[in-house]
Amino acid sequence: MARVKFLCDADRCIECNACVTACKNEHEVPWGINRRRVVTINDGKPGERSVSMACMHCTDAPCAAVCPVSCFYTTADGVVLHSKDLCIGCGYCFYACPFGAPQYPKVGNFGSRGKMDKCTYCAGGPEADSTRAEYAKYGANRLAEGKLPICAEMCSTKSLLAGDGAIIAEIYKERVMKRGYGSGMWGWKTAYSDSPTG
Amino acid sequence: MPSSISNLRALCAAIALLFVFANPAVAQLSFKPTAEAVQEDKLLNALKEGDKITGRITIPDAMASSLIQPAGRDWRDFHRSKLPIIGGVAIIGMLALLAIFLLVRGRIRIDHGFSGAKLLRFASFERFTHWLTASCFIVLALSGLNISFGRILILPLFGANAFATMSAYGKYAHDYLAFPFMLGLIIMFLIWIKDNIPGKLDLDWIKQGGGLLSKGQHPPAHRFNAGQKGIFWIVIIGGALMSVSGWFMLFPYIPANVTELQFWTVIHAVIAMLFIAAMLAHIYIGSVGMEGAFDAMGTGEVDLNWAKEHHSLWVEEEQAKGRAPSGSAARPVAAE
Fold this sequence. Notes:
The structure holds two protein chains of two kinds.
Chain A: E1 4-8, H1 18-27, E2 37-41, E3 49-53, H2 62-66, E4 72-74, E5 80-82, H3 92-96, H4 132-138, H5 150-153, E6 160-164, H6 165-179, H7 188-192
Antiparallel strand pairs in A: 1-6, 2-3, 4-5
Chain B: H1 2-22, H2 24-27, H3 40-46, E1 53-54, E2 66-68, H4 71-105, E3 118-120, H5 124-153, H6 155-158, H7 160-192, H8 200-207, H9 226-250, H10 258-286, E4 301-303, H11 304-310, H12 312-320
Antiparallel strand pairs in B: 1-2, 3-4
Helix pairs in contact in B: 4-10, 5-7, 7-9, 9-10, 11-12
């Protein structure tokens, strides 16, 4: 099995936010939650770059390590998923996540944050693949249909890449070689540096 | 008409020149917007501890403007490796100390036995406040320990579903009982502060080890001795820190900043471990550890001999006010 990852080539991102919109539409993500977002660094200054960011599906994921009820699991593809049946909405994964991925549906209402929601790499959850129960809790399971995450699939500039980590890293390196510059594989050092093989 | 063409050319050149002069950035562009863009490596290396890479976002959630916060991994490591050591040393260490103390010193008896005469030590409102706070504390401590260590200690016994259900109820209990606990803290502070101001007498008490280590030694004390004053201030200061840090965790959108939330959760966890260890000692000496001590918070009335041994000056004050029996200590009543 491949170890799947996301890679945002910030030199190609035009901040169109289509990845954000496609994700919300594909999974019917509730109001107030953005599983993916586009952050613009040095906005308005020369050399500004936009980065599309969601859960990076870390190696030794901090969220999974701190969860008091151990509701996270990693699939054979390296996707970090969680069970909303087990989640108690304590907020620990939010504190630990380097990428601000975990979010909660009920904002500011103390003691009732609700079940955590985050990017699933379009891989659903612990329920049986492509069932109504799975869709209601986690959204579409495109991986089970043999498709890649919708955000990367429809990125108009092919800035956002998803797939086998080794292959997308190679694509990015070729691009950098060819054009002569690259602002970096955003988040990779933080997400995957715990294991040299990723 | 060649002249009109040359006029047009001159006009075009003039317009082009105007653009160049009106927009000096185009004329003097030395910055290459492709190759000299922000670099993730440089931003990461420039980060100070606890800092994060942030930018502008177009969604209303302000916290989403944080792109990468590597400190999340440090927070993970704190919870995975540091907190179990802090908690283990504090709590298991305290239980071990108390066990050794019980084995070596045994139960601290009333040297002159029960006199049979009683005097009021804690009025009903004081006892109510104590038990309100104490019962909340016990639930808060157990549910908090469950959040910290339940995954290691209880999850394997219960299974994932039962443990998650229990933890969810535990979390609700923790969230809601925080409020009566804070109320109890405030009342305790108000009603007992006057008897808990440290004084010169406390130094003598501490020098004599509170008489805890040797039989028959009882340094004089007013209503509260130095040890009890210590417990009072541990509860007040520890409780205040727990309340402030807990408040931010209950209302995470007040700081609206993940770095601050990380700081307060670490404070909450570390103080909690020390607090629980201190309260174990308090519970021990108020129950198993000392004969006659539990009555103070149980019925509210303590035996005159117990009071004379542990709070000699307080008994004299109470007797002067006519609120305590003046029976002599040399009137032991055999225990039935």
